[in-house]
Design goal:
Layout lengths: L7 E2 L2 E2 L2 E3 L41 E9 L11 E12 L32 H17 L5 E2 L4 H15 L12 E8 L2 H14 L6 H11 L5 E9 L2 E9 L1
Parallel strand pairs: 6-8
Antiparallel strand pairs: 1-2, 3-7, 4-5, 7-9, 8-9
Helix pairs in contact: 1-3
């Protein structure tokens, strides 16, 4: 039975990331050895790109996309918020009660938080954004990211270029992103949504960055938007998730 994980297996890495970067830094990571490498400012993990170090700026959006509230002790979600995508030029809007999150983001994610993926919308890019926001909101009361529509076509092309010879992060920065997570050659789009993104979140906070970078990119408050790209060939399904302020 084929398994996917965050290690090198038969020359294929099942999960890797690049980031975080300072704005304007175009450096890239190097995954040629099979390790998960980071790139960014010389100060490395824990600098201005670490979660919670920067405040969220306003972003433009249109919508809607629903996210559920934090997980209760029974595993049931509580209340609902709404976040819009960034395609129409309005201000970011959130609605709904914040039961369980009235005090703002939690300093640490809820241990063992593993919510079932939201029902599919029929749009895999939206499903990817919804899943990332589900982890942010239900597992740590973090504000949702907007869907970065304008970068999706580029991120699809970038994922295809990486899958077809470029390798993980081979074209990092080409879509204007500041950080990137990658799920290379998973079995299906649905396995990426349910499995790869969960495994990335499960890394949790901590050091070294090489062991926690996926979670750091997913949970960072430096970023306000995310674009998910997908590519498929005989080797599997590849997805880059690009994060930007």
């Amino acid at each position: 039975m084929r398994r996917w994980g965050f290690v090198v297996v038969v020359g294929a890495m099942a999960g890797c990331y690049v980031g975080p970067l300072d704005v304007g830094d175009g450096s890239t990571g190097d995954d040629s050895t099979g390790t998960m490498a980071s790139s960014g400012s010389p100060s490395g993990p824990g600098d201005a790109s670490a979660p919670g170090d920067a405040s969220n700026g306003s972003t433009s959006d249109s919508g809607p996309m629903s996210t559920s509230g934090p997980m209760g002790s029974s595993g049931d979600s509580v209340d609902t918020g709404t976040v819009m995508d960034d395609s129409s030029g309005g201000d970011e809007t959130t609605t709904g009660e914040m039961s369980g999150c009235e005090m703002g983001p939690l300093p640490e994610p809820i241990p063992g938080c593993a919510p079932a993926p939201p029902p599919s919308t029929g749009d895999i890019q939206q499903d990817c954004v919804d899943r990332i926001n589900q982890f942010r909101w239900e597992c740590q009361c973090l504000p949702p990211l907007v869907r970065w529509n304008a970068a999706e076509a580029c991120t699809d092309d970038q994922s295809a270029a990486d899958q077809n010879g470029g390798g993980p992060h081979g074209n990092f920065g080409s879509c204007g992103e500041n950080a990137q997570n990658t799920c290379p050659n998973w079995g299906s789009e649905q396995q990426i949504i349910s499995g790869c993104l969960q495994a990335m979140w499960d890394e949790g906070p901590g050091e070294p960055f090489s062991a926690h970078g996926h979670y750091i990119n997913m949970s960072s408050t430096n970023y306000t938007k995310v674009a998910c790209g997908f590519s498929s060939n005989g080797g599997g399904v590849w997805s880059n998730q690009n994060f930007a302020p």
